[in-house]
Amino acid sequence: xxxxxxxxxxxxxxxxxxxxxxxxxxxxxxxxxxxxxxxxxxxxxxxxxxxxxxxxxxxxxxxxxxxxxxxxxxxxxxxxxxxxxxxxxxxxxxxxxxxxxxxxxxxxxxxxxxxxxxxxxxxxxxxxxxxxxxxxxxxxxxxxxxxxxxxxxxxxxxxxxxxxxxxxxxxxxxxxxxxxxxxxxxxxxx
Length: 190
Hints:
Oligomer: single chain
Order of helices and strands: HEEHEEHEEEE
Strand order of the largest sheet: 3-4-5-6
Radius of gyration: 31 Å
Shape: elongated
Number of strands: 8
Helix content: 10-25%
Structural class: alpha+beta
Distance between the termini: 77 Å
């Protein structure tokens, strides 16, 4: 047999197989009687063909708290897809597990607003931030930077008071109104 004859025979076999497996074409949908539905698919206890996908109820979020003048990281479950405001709010509540020595330098009213734009979070602080002592102010800023830069899409943080840029302390003791990142607080990180 020549290659031409083999190719023609192969095409015939494929056509026969395809015809045997195909669904007939019809112009419009038609009703099928219940007794003609195969495999017990109409039974109330029939397994679902595609299991339902449920969204997670919570997500684990890394939160930075204060421990002996440095930062300690704790995983906490928050509502699934926690907003940056939800994460900041969680920072005002230190862990309460037995033996936990972690605290927070953040009061619930210290952060007035949180906004993400282009990988930079702008945190608007209450004027009460100026009343925090030097080390507490550093720890409050470090908590926010450590926690928020661990979130997806966040690389830097800027701080304002009443929407005006404000100087914040960095881990080396210097002040800056420029955007800060985790690297600026490396000396305080675990």
